[in-house]
C-alpha cells in the first residue's frame, strides 16, 4: 500500500472516529442500511429501521471501506473500538471489533452507550492483555477514566479500515453513515461502505 493511501486511510480513520465513536462529541445520526441510489451528491439509503432517507454528500466527504482481519491479529497494544452487549451477569460480549490504525490511537476513547440494541455499548480503548477463554478471547481494555474486559467470540467480525471512493457507493451495498440531521434529510460527515463482501458491522 502506498504512503499516500496509508495517510488517506489514517485521516479517514481519525475523522470517522472523532464523530462516530467520540463520547463527548455532539450526538450525530448514525444511518445503517442499503444504498438505493447515488444521484449527484444525494445518497438515498433504505435504513434497517424500514424508512428511506436522503443523505447529502460534499465533495470532500470521507468514504472508507473495511477489510476482515483475524481475531488473532488483535495484540496487546492495539487500539480498538468494540461494540458489545451486557449480559445478565454484567459481562460484556463483543458484537464487532474495529482495530484502528496507529495514527488514530486515542480517538473517541472511553466507554459509552451505543445504538445497536438494548444494553449495547461502545468501548474505544487500548488492549492491555489478550487471554484465551472458553467462549473466545477476552480483551482486557483500558481507557481514560476506567477499564473493562470484553469477550470476543470466534464468529464476531474483526475489521480494520480499507480504501474506498464514491465509485463504491453502488445500489445494494450496505453503508454506515455518520450524518448531521437537516430537516427530514441528512448531511453526511463520514461514510463506510460495503466492499469486497465486507459489510460495516458497527
What does this structure look like?
Strands 1, 2, 3, 4, 5, 6, 7, 8, 9, 10, 11, 12 and 13 form a 13-stranded mixed beta sheet that branches. The chain starts with a helix and ends in a 9-residue tail after the last strand. The protein has 2 domains: 3-66 and 162-193, Beta Barrel (OB fold (Dihydrolipoamide Acetyltransferase, E2P)), CATH 2.40.50.320; 68-159, no CATH class. The model is unreliable at 3-7 and 17-26 (pLDDT under 50). Helix content is 9%, strand content 50%. The chain is elongated, with a radius of gyration of 17 Å. By secondary structure, it is mainly beta.
What labels describe this entry?
single chain, 202 residues, mainly beta, OB fold (Dihydrolipoamide Acetyltransferase, E2P), 13-stranded mixed sheet, 13 strands, 9% helix, 50% strand
Short overview:
The chain has 2 domains: 3-66 and 162-193, OB fold (Dihydrolipoamide Acetyltransferase, E2P); 68-159, no CATH class. 36% of the residues are buried.
- The name of the CATH architecture of the largest domain is Beta Barrel
Number of helices: 1
Shape: elongated
Helix residue percentage: under 10%
Structural class: mainly beta
SSE string:
HEEEEEEEEEEEEE
Low-confidence stretches: 3-7, 17-26
Instruction: Let me know the number of strands.
Output: 13
CATH topology of the largest domain: OB fold (Dihydrolipoamide Acetyltransferase, E2P)
Number of domains: 2
What's the Cα radius of gyration?
17 Å
The CATH class of the largest domain, by name, is: Mainly Beta
Strand content bin: over 45%
What oligomeric arrangement do these chains adopt?
single chain
Through-space gap between termini: 25 Å
Amino acid at each position: 500500500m502506498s504512503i499516500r493511501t496509508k495517510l488517506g486511510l489514517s485521516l479517514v480513520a481519525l475523522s470517522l472516529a472523532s464523530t462516530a465513536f467520540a463520547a463527548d462529541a455532539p450526538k450525530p445520526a448514525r444511518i445503517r442500511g442499503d444504498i438505493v441510489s447515488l444521484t449527484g451528491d444525494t445518497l438515498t439509503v433504505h435504513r434497517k429501521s424500514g424508512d428511506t432517507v436522503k443523505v447529502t454528500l460534499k465533495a470532500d466527504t470521507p468514504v472508507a471501506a473495511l477489510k476482515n482481519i483475524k481475531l488473532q491479529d488483535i495484540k496487546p497494544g492495539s487500539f480498538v473500538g468494540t461494540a458489545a452487549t451486557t449480559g445478565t451477569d454484567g459481562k460484556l460480549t463483543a458484537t464487532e471489533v474495529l482495530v484502528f490504525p496507529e495514527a488514530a490511537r486515542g480517538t473517541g476513547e472511553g466507554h459509552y452507550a451505543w445504538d445497536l440494541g438494548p444494553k449495547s455499548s461502545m468501548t474505544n480503548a487500548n488492549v492491555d492483555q489478550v487471554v484465551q477463554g472458553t467462549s473466545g478471547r477476552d480483551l482486557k481494555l483500558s481507557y481514560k477514566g476506567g477499564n473493562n474486559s470484553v469477550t470476543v467470540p470466534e464468529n464476531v467480525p474483526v475489521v480494520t479500515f480499507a480504501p474506498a471512493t464514491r465509485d463504491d457507493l453502488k445500489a445494494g451495498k450496505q453503508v454506515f453513515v455518520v450524518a448531521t440531521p437537516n430537516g427530514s434529510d441528512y448531511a453526511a460527515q463520514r461514510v463506510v461502505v460495503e466492499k469486497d463482501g465486507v459489510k460495516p458491522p458497527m
